[in-house]
Design brief:
Elements: H1 6-11, H2 59-81, H3 86-116
Bound molecules: zinc ion.
Zinc ion (ZN) binds at residues 15, 17-18, 20-21, 42, 44-45, 47.
């Protein structure tokens, strides 16, 4: 693979350090039994994916930001494309947010950790 990239590892469930090992154990956010199970260490480079207890409480702020951004974008699309159907916006926003919950949960955790970890190729030595 090419050199690690934060955006890539956040979007594709990879370790933010090496971009190779998986972050969550399942590929799918919709595996209801295991969607929230993480590897504690990167299976490829051994990076500690749970730096301290409670580390991922900060991911709440990331998921909050994702929800707000999503709702604003969704609303703007509705207002501009379907201005006569705003009832559908109200009727659809809650189910859509519920469906997106596992996805945003995982996205939030990956992006939160990625804020604190530099991809390997940018490091000089360690
Ligand atoms: Zn790794």
């Amino acid at each position: 693979m090419a050199k690690p990239n934060k955006l890539y590892s956040v979007l594709f469930n990879k370790c933010p350090r090496c971009g190779e090992g998986d972050f969550f154990i399942t590929k799918s956010a919709y595996n209801l039994k295991n969607f929230d199970k993480m590897n504690k260490h990167c299976p490829n480079c051994g990076e500690n994916l749970v730096p301290e207890p409670g580390f991922y409480q900060g991911a709440l702020y990331m998921s909050y930001a994702f929800y707000v951004a999503f709702m604003v974008i969704y609303f703007l699309i509705f207002v501009n494309v379907f201005p006569n159907y705003l009832d559908y916006f109200l009727a659809s926003i809650i189910p859509i947010l519920i469906i997106l919950t596992p996805y945003f949960y995982r996205l939030a955790r990956r992006s939160w950790l990625a804020l604190f970890i530099t991809p390997e190729s940018k490091k000089t030595a360690s």
